[in-house]
Each structure stands twice: as structure tokens, then as C-alpha cells.
Write a structure and sequence with these properties.
Blueprint lengths: L23 E2 L2 H16 L3 H13 L1 H10 L4 E6 L5 E6 L7 E5 L2 E11 L3 H18 L5 E5 L4 E6 L1 H4 L3 H12 L3 E5 L4 E3 L10 E4 L6 E4 L4 E3 L4 E5 L8 E3 L5 E3 L1 E6 L6 E5 L7 E3 L6 E4 L2 E2 L10 E6 L3 E13 L13 E5 L11 E4 L2 E11 L5 E8 L8 E2 L22
Parallel strand pairs: 1-19, 3-5, 7-8, 20-25
Antiparallel strand pairs: 2-3, 4-5, 6-7, 6-22, 9-25, 10-11, 12-13, 12-27, 13-17, 14-15, 16-17, 18-19, 21-22, 21-24, 22-23, 23-26, 24-25, 25-26
Length: about 425
């Protein structure tokens, strides 16, 4: 395993206040195995079986990208099942034969289901066209997303609306949108995850409105080609300081924030953010290298993703929705359905801006979460790295140089 030491003053995205002096940079294989161990914990399966599931998940991305293009006019949703199989839901009654993806030692079933009433394109169009009307029909603005497993528009209503005639409400919403509707409730409105007041060694900055100091979590290292910096959530304070383990302070320079519609991202520049590295584990003893970036288009319901937050630590969970608009007015007004929702319970205040990843693949920045009355996390949602601000890009490690190839010795020629 490759090991090297990281200087204490260097900023590592994902946990700016971590003990970087003795941290170990782990290999891509070790990073994926670490995520598999958490999947094994939450699912109660063997770590080796969990690792196979994650390998299947990564191996099936290219095939599901092809399926989405091939069946675009009928596609209601794509999801990854708990056994690693790909489930494809189509409209209409014309059946499609099941198939398999074979790659290396992996065989991944592809199961087609038919009978959906609306395509994903139609569901998205209905959400975008009628979001304001749906909000006006309810007592509090709801979270809305696409249920890719059932091919419906999922509307998460509050307790007050759930206490009325839910069947009648569903009928009115179906008539309004012209697509299938499923109603659910989470018990509490969605919240951004920046609001915990602390005074410790984290990414800290003052709120100019009240003078109090808040903390967030850094996501990944980025560059615009001339300078480097870190990204976090736009609803975090503008002025942010990195506090090292020895209590030394490294100020960062606020570049800008983008926090409306489909954005919740802020860039703070610093020459000390020089490598594509981030912490993943709760103890902050293992550093991962960013080796790739995954787009939202290549993310499926049922995919496993992991995240690290300064408050909740490290956890992995399933993607619930890929087309999700959080409740309330958390995006400078209504949010667009471009956010990705991930099952709880791994989220708490202070996690905002933290990295979402799998192995060494960077995926997104955590924005907010939805909570039950007891304070437990129902789900969190993140911004895809597709939406980094214009001119800025993720810093990614260069591909490893290929190993030298020694030509095989010539085979002996058999006598005639």
C-alpha cells in the first residue's frame, strides 16, 4: 500500500480539522473495501459480498447509460436492487426480455418491468410545470421527486396536510399534473445542515448577521487553472478559516457562492489546497485520492454512495431519488429537481458542504437533510459535481503510468 505523510498545513478536503500529520493515503482498492465494510454493516451481510455488490454497481454504469438511451421513449426509471441487479421500468405493455451484463468475473442481471403510466421525461416535465401550483395547494412547500422504482411523482407532505383527506388530495394532484402521484410524509421540513454553533477545530466562520461562529465541512479541492481552493456549501459563512490540529489558523479567501435553484456551492481559495485528497473515515486517519468524478446522469436509484461530515462522521447508504426538489425555499426560492436524495440516518447539522463519494470517485457536495420529530435523519440530499461553478473544475489525480510490459518469450516451434 502506498504511504506518505501530509504536511500539517496542507488542506485536505472533507475534514479540514483532521489530524493530517500521521494520516495514510489509501489505495483505490482499500477505499472501496472500506465502503464495502460499511455496506456490510448496514445490510448485515459479509464484507466480501458487499464488495462484490459495489463492484457490480460500478461495472453496470456504462450499460445503464446505454439502456437509458436505447429505451428513452419508454423509460420510467432505472434502479439498482439489493443483489446488484439492474431493474428497468418501462411504459406500455410490450415486454422486453431480461438480459445480463458480463464483465470480468461479474454477471449482473438486467430485469425489465413494463406497465408504467408515465416516462421519466413526462414526470420531470409535470414537476417543473406544476411545482408552483402543487406548493400552493399545500400548507407548507413540499419536497418533490421522482420515484424511479414505481414510476410516480413522489410528494412529501407535512403532518398538517397528511391529517386531511389524503385520497382526495392525491386525486386533485393527479388531475393537476396528469401523472401518477404517490404521497409520503417525513414529519419535519427539510433543513440545510450548517446551523450548529461550535467553537472547535473545524472549518469555521462568522455569520455577519448575528456575529456567531458556525462550522461546515469542506468537500473537494478545485481549481480554475490559475488558483486552487476548496468547495463547501453556499449557505455556510463566507469567511472561513481552517483550524489545524495544533490550533494554527489558515485563512481562506472567499471567491464566490452560488446558492439558487440547482446550486449550493461556495469556493474559498487557498494555495494550501494543492492535492486532490479528502478524508472519508470518521477518525480522519485515512486520506483518499480523487481518481474520478461521477455525473448525476450516471447515478441510479439504489446506488450506494458514502459521505463524510464534521458532525455525523462517515456513513454509506442507498440513493433514494435522482430527480429531487427539496422542500421549502432553500434554493433562493423553490429548488429545482436536480438534487440527489440519499437514505439516512447518517446526517447531522454541520455536515453541509461535505464530500459524497464512493471509493476514490467524487460524486457530490452535501446540502441538507430531512428529519423525524425525534431528530433522526430520514434522508440527506446533495448537489452533483456537475454543477460546480463555471470556470472551476474538480482536481483529479493524473492516471497512473502504465507498468512496463515485458514481451513474452517466443513459444518453441513443434517439429514437423
Amino acid at each position: 500500500m502506498l504511504r506518505w505523510m501530509v504536511a500539517a498545513h496542507a488542506l485536505v478536503a472533507g475534514s479540514p480539522a483532521a489530524a493530517q500529520d500521521a494520516a495514510t493515503v489509501v489505495s483505490a482498492e482499500a477505499a472501496l473495501a472500506q465502503d464495502a465494510a460499511d455496506v456490510a454493516r448496514i445490510r448485515g451481510i459479509d464484507p466480501a459480498a458487499a464488495l462484490v455488490l459495489l463492484r457490480k454497481q460500478v461495472a453496470s454504469i456504462a450499460a445503464t447509460d446505454w439502456i437509458e438511451g436505447r429505451y428513452r421513449e419508454r423509460l420510467a426509471g432505472i434502479a439498482i436492487e439489493t443483489d446488484g441487479a439492474v431493474s428497468v421500468l418501462l411504459t406500455g405493455n410490450r415486454p422486453v426480455a431480461d438480459a445480463e451484463i458480463r464483465t470480468g468475473d461479474l454477471t449482473i442481471p438486467v430485469r425489465f418491468r413494463i406497465g408504467a403510466k408515465s416516462t421519466r421525461v413526462e414526470l420531470l416535465a409535470a414537476l417543473n410545470r406544476h411545482q408552483a401550483d402543487i406548493r400552493a395547494m399545500l400548507r407548507r412547500p413540499p419536497a418533490i421527486g421522482i420515484d424511479a422504482r414505481q414510476g410516480t411523482l413522489l410528494i412529501q407532505i407535512g403532518a398538517a396536510d397528511a391529517g386531511g383527506d389524503v385520497a382526495a388530495l392525491r386525486r386533485r394532484l393527479t388531475e393537476l399534473t396528469g401523472v401518477p402521484i404517490r404521497l409520503a410524509t417525513t414529519g419535519r421540513p427539510d433543513l440545510d445542515l450548517a446551523g450548529e454553533v461550535i467553537g472547535g477545530s473545524r472549518l469555521i466562520g462568522p455569520d455577519p448577521a448575528n456575529g456567531r461562529r458556525y462550522y461546515c465541512t469542506t468537500g473537494f479541492v478545485v481549481t480554475d487553472g490559475t488558483q486552487t481552493g476548496i468547495v463547501t456549501a453556499a449557505h455556510c459563512p463566507d469567511q472561513l478559516d481552517h483550524i489545524a490540529p495544533d490550533r494554527s489558523v489558515t485563512p481562506t479567501r472567499f471567491v464566490g457562492q452560488w446558492g439558487w435553484g440547482f446550486h449550493d456551492v461556495q469556493v474559498n481559495a487557498t494555495p494550501d489546497a494543492v492535492r486532490p485528497l479528502f478524508f472519508a473515515d470518521a477518525a480522519r486517519t485515512h486520506i483518499r485520492t480523487v481518481e474520478a468524478q461521477r455525473s448525476r446522469a450516471s447515478t441510479r436509484v439504489g446506488d450506494i454512495v458514502c459521505h463524510r461530515g464534521e458532525s455525523s462522521g462517515y456513513s454509506c447508504a442507498e440513493v433514494m431519488m435522482v430527480d429531487f426538489a427539496p422542500a421549502g425555499d432553500l434554493c433562493g426560492g423553490p429548488c429545482l429537481p436536480t438534487w440527489v436524495a440519499v437514505a439516512g440516518p447518517g446526517c447531522r447539522g454541520g455536515d453541509s458542504g461535505g464530500p459524497v463519494f464512493l471509493g476514490g470517485t467524487a460524486i457530490g457536495l452535501l446540502k441538507g437533510g430531512s428529519y423525524r420529530p425525534d431528530g433522526s435523519c430520514v434522508f440527506y440530499y446533495y448537489m452533483s459535481l456537475d454543477y460546480l461553478p463555471d470556470g472551476w473544475r474538480l482536481l483529479v489525480a493524473p492516471p497512473a503510468a502504465p507498468l512496463p510490459i515485458t514481451p513474452p518469450a517466443p513459444l518453441p516451434v513443434a517439429p514437423n
